[in-house]
Amino acid sequence: MTNKLNVIAFLLNFGTASPASENTRVVRVLSSVSPDMWEGRRLARWRIAKDGGVQTLRRRDALAHMRDVRAPRCKETLRSPEQRTTCANFDMKRYNGERQYFADANGRKIDTIRQKIEEWKTTGRITESAYWFLLASLLESADKVANTASVYGAYLKNLKKTAQKEMVLEPANFQTNINEHQVFNTDSNELIKQIDGDILYLDPPYNERQYGANYHLLNTIARYDDFVPHGKTGLRNYQKSKYCSRNIVAREFENLIKNAKFKFIFLSYNNEGLMSVEEVRAIMEKYGTYQLAQTDYHRFKADKTENRNHKANSTQEYLHILEKT
């Protein structure tokens, strides 16, 4: 049940004598605040897009042309994040050098491609669909050569092997389907008052680590805006999730459950979350019939064990289940 793709099949069939119909409405909520596209649950981030043959052809053509874009060679490497390079005038200048999130050549390439994507959009050379496709492709391709342990809360002191490879712009991996989807970028506790459905799957942050900090650099590439980076790691300002606050997470969670107009509600959480199993159970039992499924899951480690608050090799993953009455 810890696999975020396989769990949907379980949800669709839960509590029914036969598989759920094609009209079953599933809503997946990630966070309680404005979620950026690079939240922690990345498996399904591009898998909900509706695709079409004509649009895909245009996207592929645009990708082929974009691969021919070449980053100019810089005569010197900038070491001050405030300096501006003549090679590119976007955002990698604020990171490469003092903040080595990418190899210098890859940083310049990301710069150049991102600028060209925006230029093509502004001049009408590409469709809006192709614009988002190219941007998604750039984000996924850049992430493959990032000089990080896995997330962007910090960069590595020395370039790792994968970061030394040349970035190759590859197409984002969409799964085509005939379904329609809606994607919201807003406070989930407010959104829940405006939507309804059959199944609500909740996958919020469970500890005090903010997604905004973990994926800030990819958000910067996506947003293409001007900002002042803060601190050694160059963080941008971001809205913090109330689900990452030990003092108010239970209150926010109960408000969401209370206002949810769904028959079945599923919460993915684990034993290291800010809310204990007992707290979650106590809240959900107020609103219907509660069940709990759990399994051991091998811990993902992006840093040294001695630096972690939790040093166990595995976690207990929970799927809290509520049939609301």
SSE topology:
Layout: H1 6-13, E1 26-29, H2 53-66, H3 104-122, H4 128-144, H5 188-191, E2 196-202, H6 211-214, H7 216-223, H8 249-259, E3 261-270, H9 277-284, E4 288-298, E5 314-324
Helix pairs in contact: 2-4, 3-4, 8-9
Structure write-up:
The protein has 2 domains: 1-42 and 181-205 and 241-325, Rossmann fold (3-Layer(aba) Sandwich); 49-179 and 212-238, no CATH class. It has 9 helices and 5 strands. The radius of gyration is 22 Å and the shape is globular. The chain has a 5-stranded mixed sheet with strand order 1-2-3-5-4, covered by helices on one side. The longest helix is centred in the middle third of the chain and has 19 residues, at 104-122. Mean pLDDT is 75; it is low at 15-20, 31-58 and 72-91. With 325 residues, it is of the alpha/beta class.
- E-strand count: 5
Order of strands in the sheet with most strands = 1-2-3-5-4
| End-to-end separation | 24 Å
Fraction of helical residues: 25-40%
Percentage beta strand: 5-15%
Summarize the entry for a quick read:
This protein has 325 residues and is α/β, with parallel strands linked by helices. 29% of the residues lie in helices and 13% in strands. It has helices at residues 6-13, 53-66, 104-122, 128-144, 188-191, 211-214, 216-223, 249-259, 277-284; strands at residues 26-29, 196-202, 261-270, 288-298, 314-324.
Task: Pick out its properties.
325 residues; alpha/beta; Rossmann fold; 2 domains; five-stranded mixed β-sheet
